[in-house]
Amino acid sequence: MNHKELLLKIDPNMTFSVNTQIKEQLKWMIGTGEIESGDMLPAASQLANELGLNRNTINWVYNQLRDEGIVSMHKGRGTIVCNSPEVEQLKRERVPMLRLLTDTIHHAQSEGIELHDFFIAGLAYVLQHNTGTTKAQRIVFVECKEHDHPFYVKEIERITGCEILPLFLEDLSSGEVNLADVLVPSDIVVTTLNHADQVKMLVSQYDHKVHVIGATVEPSALIHMARLNAEASVAFICLGKSGGEWMASRVEEAGIHLKQANTVGLYGADKELVASILEQSDQIYASSAVFPAVKQMLPDKVELYPMHLEKSSENLLKEITREQ
């Protein structure tokens, strides 16, 4: 299958990020039928070279389109436009927009109006006169891959109602994701206490304040742990080992001293070693991100390590979203 030839453009002077510019052009071309279901998009490296961008920028766009149900990504085959309800909905929205925009642009050109200025003026008009529901503010949540980041994302979304964009420190540090490409002026940046200093350093060159939140373990779980046999071997497991270490440290801070406590990560570690530690443990506490998988492995030993955001963090999230 040949890939679809794309004529995309980037305007560095626009306030919209490069990622947004590329993604919205692709969605427009798919929605108006210029790119059809079944068409293959160019390889990320090829499109990046054509646009003079980092390949990781295109990877980020393709991943976003995949998450929206618009494309599917196949190792060895490439990125293909889906024949999906999401694509059909996109067509239903964009086709009438195309007719309306074509007529409007013709009128603007006949009046001698520069289209870029017309677009910016139209944006200003919508912001001032749109009486519909305002789109939720976007929160950029920065965390590492080893901690229970799905828990934080769900909690932030529940409390704020905002769109959440998770970014991982590993991807930022390696250059796989360029912060400048995804961060826009209106974004709210949130991270956890564990990574506050590192994230503040990364964001320092941008005009963004970093808001720090924290979580703790439910008291009922601490009571359960305090009642364990003093000789019991206990394992704390999260996505990565540092996540397990965080879980164990909260127990220590609560004054509960476990004689044999092991911390492991379900992913990115030696599978045989992890399996051996879990098998030899009398009790296992798993974060919500890995609980279903670990529970299936050892159902009689596993308990959920139930976390909740600290009250001060909930209040902070409510406050910063009210201010926007």
From TrEMBL:
InterPro entries: Tscrpt_reg_HTH_GntR, WH-like_DNA-bd_sf, WH_DNA-bd_sf. SMART domains: HTH_GNTR (SM00345). Keywords: DNA-binding, Transcription, Transcription regulation. Coiled coil: none annotated. GO terms for molecular function: DNA binding; DNA-binding transcription factor activity. Signal peptide: none annotated. Residues 16-84 form the HTH gntR-type domain. This is Transcriptional regulator, GntR family.
